[in-house]
Design goal:
2 domains; 13 helices; about 55% helix; about 5% strand; about 300 residues; hpI Integrase, Chain A; 3-stranded antiparallel sheet; DNA polymerase, domain 1; mainly alpha
Length: about 300
């Protein structure tokens, strides 16, 4: 089990680009869980069940941990099991239906519209890679795709005439996502000017390619967005998911209905989308506090 934990932490480092402090928190939470399993004489992660996790959750409560601390532990466990399930290390995910204690939902980081504009302006569009990067960022913000969906997007799944693309989300669920005129124009320009130069003599079924004509990776995109955020002077901790979060929040701020945003994001449960209504509410509270004379 320790080897699987090491693989997971490496995944968080390389693929997710998490900070050292966050990695240490995951390591502490999951080592605590593994210690609990050994005390229960469970030596294989595949031998655990939802009852095991519920029992661990109860043990944390008995030790006097706050709901916030318990929730962080459960969130770490859920992500660990999701990693194991997606990597086929386990046949089923016992943590899938385990909920953390109520009232501890963490609001996602979002960018303001002004910060998005700053970010989108940073790539050098006079160069093929810069034009590709601009198109990546523009399309991500225009559609709210998951980064894994964006970098693996097949060329044939983009219909510029109709103004939509077909994305395959979690569980290979297919959905139609509008692109928007601005992003459409960038994609057209990228296809005409940059993609042929990047491909050279190579062939690719993917929309976005690297300098060698190969598909991009999530790790590669993470490096790109970090670089442009730094160049734009944005101080927030930006991850590849930040533009997806910003897409959803800005839609809701603009008056979009929750169900439509759910469909565009590809959320199976609308409760997942509702987190963005809290983000919008918090933003409105800050604006009220800042500008209302009686606040």
């Amino acid at each position: 089990m320790e080897q699987l934990l090491d693989q997971f932490l490496n995944y968080l480092t390389v693929e997710k680009g998490l900070s050292l402090n966050t990695l240490e928190a995951y390591s502490r939470d999951l080592n605590k869980y593994l210690d609990f399993l050994y005390l229960k004489d469970i030596k294989e992660i595949g031998a655990t069940s939802d009852v095991t996790i519920i029992s661990f959750k109860a043990s944390l409560k008995k030790k006097g941990l706050s709901n916030r601390s318990i929730g962080r532990n459960i969130s770490s466990i859920k992500m660990f099991y999701r990693f194991l399930s997606e990597g086929h290390h386990i046949t089923s995910n016992p943590a899938a239906n385990i909920d953390p204690p109520k009232g501890i939902s963490k609001l996602p980081h979002i960018l303001s519209i002004e910060e998005v504009d700053l970010l989108l302006e940073k790539p050098d569009m006079t160069k093929p890679l810069g034009l590709r990067d601009t198109t990546l960022l523009q399309l991500l913000y225009a559609t709210g795709l998951r980064v894994s969906e964006l970098v693996s997007l097949p060329l044939n799944n983009v219909n510029l005439e109709a103004g939509y693309l077909i994305a395959y989300g979690k569980g290979s669920k297919e959905r139609l996502v509008p692109i928007g005129e601005v992003a459409q124009n960038y994609v057209k320009l990228y296809l005409e000017k940059a993609r042929p130069q990047l491909l050279g003599d190579h062939q690719s079924n993917y929309l976005f390619v690297s300098r060698r004509g190969k598909p991009l990776t999530r790790q590669g995109f993470w490096k790109l967005i970090k670089k442009y955020a730094l160049s734009a002077g944005i101080q927030k901790n930006i991850t590849p998911h930040t533009l997806r979060h910003s897409f959803a929040s800005h839609l809701l701020e603009g008056g979009a209905d929750l169900r439509s945003v759910q469909m565009m994001l590809g959320h199976a449960d609308i409760s997942t989308t509702q987190i963005y209504t809290h983000v919008t509410s918090e933003r409105l509270k800050k604006i009220h506090s800042q500008f209302h004379p009686r606040a």
